[in-house]
Amino acid sequence: MTSSVYLDLAVVALLAAAFWSAPALARPTLPFGVRVPAAHVAEPAIIRAHRRYARGVLVAGTLAFVLVAFASAGLRWERAAAFAAPALAAVCCGLGYQAHRTIAAAKRSGDWYSGTRQAVVTDTSLRTDPVRPQWSFLAPAVVLFGITAAIGAWRYGALPDTLPTPNGVIVDSARRSATTFGRAFATVTAQLLIIVLVGLLAIALPRARPELDAAQPSASAARYRAYLASVLRLLFGTAGCAAASLLVASLEVWEIVPATTGATVVSYLPLAAASVAWVAFAFRAGDAGHRLPAEEEDSRRVQRDDDRYWHLAGMVYVNRGDPAVLVHRRSGVSWTLNLGHPVSWAILGALAAVAALAGFGVVELPSRGG
Predict the structure, then answer these.
(1) Taking CA 345 as the corner, what is the angle to CA 339 and CA 347, rounded to the nearest 5 degrees?
(2) What Å distances lie between residue 336 and 104, 299, 331, CA to CA?
(3) Quick one: how far is CA 27 from the chain centroid?
(4) Max CA pair span of the chain
(5) Quick one: which H or E segment has residue 326?
(6) Consecutive H or E run containing 178
(7) Is residue 207 helix, strand or coil?
(8) Based on the number of CB atoms within 10 Å of its own CB, is 322 exposed (0-12), middle (13-18) or buried (19 or more)?
(9) Would you say 258 and 155 are in contact if contact means Cβ atoms under 8 Å apart?
(10) Which end of the chain is more exposed for a tag (fewer CB within 10 A), N or C?
(11) Is pTM beyond 0.85 here?
């Protein structure tokens, strides 16, 4: 089997593992994106939904893995194998959505919130004393960007008329394109964009509405602070790992080092390290940091049932009455825009415009030959 086949098999296996483990990392009161009171987290409907989802993911993952393996054996399933990972993701999302609907229906029929004291809490200290990014953790990414740019500037005048084509951090020496400034420094531009994006996220995330639990207001606030600080450090570290991978890819594009399988493996090592760090953190902290240690308490209240504002199994948030632009998603170590806020649509429009300009090559400069 070729290295690309091994990569496809690894992607399918990791994707199946990620989907299979995701419900275990979710907050107990948010199974598959449905808000439930703590007294009902062990309902039979929830347990059955978890089991059906886990079985479905295992079956889908096994089928996708076998499909890719058979394609590598020369059974002429190459085209089908190319869609194995996207199809697996789609099927797993569908299984998750079905579990979401099942639990939501059981919640409505059982009237699980009947007799509860619902509340919403906030931590005003996150405004007066916010979690501050430790910008020194971004220094490795900036230094690596500077080194790559300096090497590129030194090498640019001696580049051949065509260059190997990079695809992320993979460089294909067989596919070559005319040497232009934009193509020669595409990997350097990617480094810069990652640094800028991570910097913007480090500014925005501490200003996002925190995810606190009305049943344990003080404990959840302490957990969220520790969680957010760790996320920011991981973001900075990931930027450094991405910059290191792109440095190796740049050396291949500029033909300072040969574009071999060994170089590709080296370029993936920093990204692999970052991925391991994120996975370890996700298992240790859980979604929104609910697994982190804190002094337990009981306010005798439950978090307000706000399911009506969340759509697509807790992935999309729309609340025109919420002034927050950025909120923590119900699943995963991630945040999302409040699509009920006009500023969110302005941000999406700006991102779409930038993507369109990049796609049409508006910023591409001419080749050195004019």
Answers:
(1) 115
(2) 22, 28, 11
(3) 18
(4) 76
(5) strand 326-328
(6) strand 170-178
(7) helix
(8) middle
(9) no
(10) C
(11) yes
Q: Which residues pair with 170 in a beta bridge?
A: 167
Length of the chain: 370
How large is the average pLDDT for residues 266-273? Answer: 92
- Nearest Cα to 341, choosing from 310, 315, 319? 319
* Contact yes or no for 313/96 (Cβ under 8 A): yes
DSSP state of 367: B
- The Cα 287–Cα 325 span in angstroms is 20
In whole angstroms, give the CA distance from residue 152 to residue 247.
Answer: 10
Assign 311 to helix, strand or coil.
Answer: strand
52-85 burial, b at 16+ Cβ within 10 Å, e below that, comes to ebbebbeebbeebbebbbebbeeeebeeebeebb
pLDDT at 363 over 50: no
Compute the mean pLDDT over every residue in the chain, rounded to the nearest whole number. Answer: 89
Q: What is the pLDDT of residue 2?
A: 53
